[in-house]
């Protein structure tokens, strides 16, 4: 007999399972059944692809049995099984970097946390929420040797053992009677495991009514299949209810909430495939993490291939969960094939088109629901506008914006419909804060002319909006680059001397100083050269790690009609100080930092003192 200590992380995790997460204990069964289902998937795949496994006798099934006297519950499968190394590696250590992440994600909300158990690949250990002792009897397919792994959560032992056929049988020595009840067990199986593709059998008592008058009815125990075990996505749409779709979603997503939308497609043209996609009604915890998990499982002819392939959908659709089942691929598809294969490529393209077009429908038919979707995932969707991505047109139809004139969110189409007759362009302004953007000096002229501006206050806007040049043949431009030709031209030559002096005073901080007709109430504002990234874009580029960005200075534009500028022409003494203050104020209004706040305070104080 060999005795082993658990890896430290496993011990920590076990403590956590036993002492904190136990209030949603029933999920242990979901986890053990899902491991059995995985083990059946693995063997299923091998028997279909590897010659040495083809002769193996293999009837995929899971059996659940309990014994009230011993207080034991046993979950058995006819799957791949484990050898000694597998036992040590899989049930004594945590190979994936998963646990650390798992521990850092715990929120204290027990329901949420117990869903994380499944997502982080630490499901097996949840057995210790309900059992003081766990035994794993297992024999690997094609191997002669069986082993018994046994643990009390403190350490574990492995001994040689006997088992008739390949597969794994896990026996839990339960802490109490709660799960020694067929109705309870059946309910849990139906709730979490109804649609795993393999049958789950259980001894169920069935009442047989009396056959003849005078006789009594009796109860018979029968080994009965308790789950549906259907590849739900292969069933006919009209045989399925919303409830079936929702249950299946919960099973594959570890999300307790109903999805916002499901999209079930059966393609029967040149390329045959079935897809069932879901859009969650809640933000997945890893939506904005680089190591987010793919939500789409790939099957080939109903055989599970992978749930770890992020390229199945573009990253801007990473919130989508579901199943993709392709007919005309070999079962032993490699990662390379997945990425380059022409069939796979058209399945992906068609899937993306389908999802986008269903979102378009939702937008047109159920605005309220669409807004709900958009608030959750709109910023992720907007990532699809990056660069020269495909489907930009479709995405442009779906994205929404805040507006300088209206409450809520509007689409580009709605913006266009409300455009003035003589307005030729769509305008937007980017930055961090909705209120300060709305009141930005840049928009003064727009307000006066009653022209709507899209207020782009999310980070992704600052990155993608400069990459969007037009919508439906109408150019899209930053508000700072709008040129209004109707207003009487300013005679710039009148201000050459003043401009030169202001420029001299702040020459280290600006690229240029210009007179402008874009302002009404403010004396000055900051803009960027047409080809320079604006301030918010620069900041995000830096955040994304572009540290070699050269310093890009703004342009200070002054309003010649403003009282301050007019007086400045005749006040040579104050010109230096006032120029600096004008620049600093314009910077603050643009959401930037002041270079030297102490100098700013000093100058402003002295100006106040003079004014009083
Ligand atoms: P995950 O299922 O995410 O890998 P678990 O903690 O649930 O994490 O299981 C750990 C590992 O133990 C599995 O990956 C698998 O290799 C092995 N394992 C668990 N249960 C079984 C089983 N019934 N048959 C074969 N292997 C199993
Ligand atoms: Mg598992």
TrEMBL record:
Q: Please name the GO terms that the record assigns under molecular function.
A: ATP binding; ATP hydrolysis activity; ATP-dependent protein folding chaperone; calcium ion binding; unfolded protein binding
Q: Which GO terms describe its cellular component?
A: cytoplasm
Checking SMART domains in the record gives: HATPase_c (SM00387)
Q: Which keywords does this chain's UniProt record carry?
A: ATP-binding, Chaperone, Cytoplasm, Nucleotide-binding, Stress response
Write out the ranges of the annotated region (C): 540-612
Chief site of localization: cytoplasm
Q: Which residues form the EF-hand domain?
A: 390-425
What PROSITE patterns does its record include? EF_HAND_2, HSP90
* Gene3D superfamilies on file: 3.30.230.80, 3.40.50.11260, Heat shock protein 90, C-terminal domain, Histidine kinase-like ATPase, C-terminal domain
InterPro entries assigned to the protein according to its UniProt record, in alphabetical order: EF_hand_dom, HATPase_C_sf, HATPase_dom, Heat_shock_protein_90_CS, HSP90_C, Hsp90_fam, Hsp90_N, Ribosomal_Su5_D2-typ_SF
Where does this polypeptide localize?
A: Cytoplasm
Record has ATP-binding as a keyword? yes
Region annotated A, chain positions: 1-335
Residue positions binding ATP = 31, 35, 77, 82, 90, 96-98, 119-124, 168, 335
Q: What task does this protein carry out? A: Molecular chaperone. Has ATPase activity.
Question: How does the annotation summarize its subunit structure?
Answer: Homodimer.
The UniProt family comment states: Belongs to the heat shock protein 90 family.
UniProt name for this protein = Chaperone protein HtpG
